[in-house]
Amino acid sequence: VFADAGPHCATDRRTRVLSCARLDGAWGLAVHEDLLYVSSFGSDEILAFHRKSRKFKRSLTGELDSPEGLAVGGDFLYVASFLDSRLVAFDLKRGGHRTLALGTPVEVDFEALAFVPGRSPFDEAATRGAAARAAALWGPSEPRETAAPFVDRLRGPEQLALLGNATLAVSSLHDESVLEIDVESGRLVRVLADGARDGRFAGPLGIAVAAPDGRVADAAGAGGCAAGRDPLLLVASYRSDAVTVLGDACDGSLSLDDDLLRGPTAIALDPSDAGGVYVSAYETSAVLYFNLSHVDRDAEELLRRVSICLLYTSPSPRDKRQSRMPSSA
User: Fold this and answer.
1) N or C: where does the chain have the smaller number of CB atoms within 10 Å of the terminal CB?
2) Which whole number is the average pLDDT over 108-112?
3) Distance (Å, whole) CA 210 – CA 234
4) How many CB atoms lie within 10 A of CB 26?
5) What is the pLDDT of residue 325?
6) CA end-to-end span of the chain, whole Å?
7) pTM here?
């Protein structure tokens, strides 16, 4: 076991101050230099462990509310704060953090025991418009932390993935979409996938980025996608039981399919085989491995499952599913 649930403490060598954090519901993972960062859903913080010694080193907090997905770009750690629908950027070198973007918060329906889209307590657009007019008259008075742009479609961010150095892909669960966000301004660049228009992207959770010159791109080309220069995005859609490949020159015509691919939640690319794709399927408690390396074969052979690793059987997967998915109402 790399890190146990519960409290973890460390003493700062310079200040000799003891600090503690609690790992409660480990969710997202990201590596930066010698540290592994783990988002703790229940304690609203990010814990950092040394990759080799496994010792707890420090924690990051920024008024997070149930943090989930993590992504590293340069010396910045990007965090998806689920319940308050915020994207937060931590500077791992100089310290400090800022809200990159904020959206409509997620609320808890205690009767249905489910997370549901919330309502903003004020008119975000009108409030920011008034602040801008006041700044034009009297000069800016708001701290940088409150200057993050409001992105209406950012509703329950789940997973993050860097698209090059300039933008971030974000799965927005309660908006049924995958968004592209500028990492400097925090503004919405475009909607990459829209589950309201295309059912294949209903309930987007896991996302991964594949290089445009790798075997996943070759398989995408064999599946009818034109070659492009930009990275390909793989999207795991929980409610549509699909993993779809997207790109500037690809309309999502290439999808992974299998009888056990039910409720996919996460995607990982195989570092030893550029055509290997791991997919976790929550509803069947399985991890599936697809191999897209054999691009000279027909499309059905390309998507054939190579192996399956059954992990465990959840006692009540659909009960847990209801707590994560949007209300049908």
Assistant:
1) N
2) 62
3) 8
4) 16
5) 47
6) 41
7) 0.78
pLDDT 10s digits, 255-267: 777 888 888 888 8
From edge to edge, which strands make up the β-sheet containing 286-291?
264-269, 276-281, 286-291, 305-310
Q: What are phi and psi of 19, to 5 degrees?
A: -125, 145
pLDDT digits (tens, 9 = 90+) for 208-247: 988 766 566 565 554 445 555 677 888 999 998 988 888 7
Can you give the length of the chain in residues? 329
Separation between Cα atoms, residue 118 and residue 170, nearest integer Å: 19
The amino acid occupying position 198 is D
User: What's the average model confidence in pLDDT over 273-294?
Assistant: 80
* Strand, helix or coil for residue 132: helix
Output the 3-class SS for 249-287: CECCCCEECCCCCCCEEEEEECCCCCCEEEEEECCCCEE
* Cβ atoms 228, 254 nearer than 8 A: no
pLDDT bin (cut points 50, 70, 90) of residue 148 is: confident
As to burial, measured by CB atoms within 10 angstroms (0-12 exposed, 13-18 middle, 19+ buried), residue 175 is buried
Residue 215: strand pairing partners: none
Two structure tokens written together for 68: 């989930």
